[in-house]
Amino acid sequence: MLDIQASQLRRMESSINHISQTVDIHKEKVARREIGILTTNKNTSRTHKIIAPANLERPVRYIRKPIDYTILDDIGHGVKVSTQNMKMGGLPRTTPPTQKPPSPPMSGKGTIGRHSPYRTLEPVRPPVVPND
């Protein structure tokens, strides 16, 4: 008996939902029709938008000029090379750096500890709902 009533209730709910969707579609059609009444046709002209100039300018003939890279010598943080070293065969000889690159701090047996800067972060706790 309860199963029959539950199935009837589901059918009624389905038909009500269908009617509701039909009404919503009708309302949207009416609203779009009202918006369409307020619109006007776009006036399109058939004339050309781009007009050619009356007098044509003669293009300037291209002349190749060699590129002078010496104007870039004083820009930036590059290595200064004197012309004397260039005659001797390339870049000036410099001594290798005597300072070692920084290494991570050693603690304990060489493992990554809790206070090491290279440790993995602890997971964030999920939010807790207050009991108030």
List keywords for this structure.
single chain, mainly alpha, 132 residues
Topology:
Layout: H1 2-38, H2 83-89
Structure description:
The model has no long low-confidence stretch (mean pLDDT 79). With 132 residues, the chain is mainly α. Helix content is 33%, strand content 0%. It has helices spanning 2-38, 83-89.
Percent helix: 25-40%
Number of helices: 2
Radius of gyration using CA atoms only:
41 Å
Give the helices and strands as they follow along the chain: HH
Major pleated sheet: none
Report the mean per-residue pLDDT as an integer: 79
Counting copies of identical and different chains, the oligomeric state is single chain
How does the helix and strand content classify structurally?
Answer: mainly alpha
Unreliable segments of 5+ consecutive residues: none
Net shape: flat
Strand content range: under 5%
Distance between the termini: 44 Å
Tell how many strands the DSSP assignment holds: 0
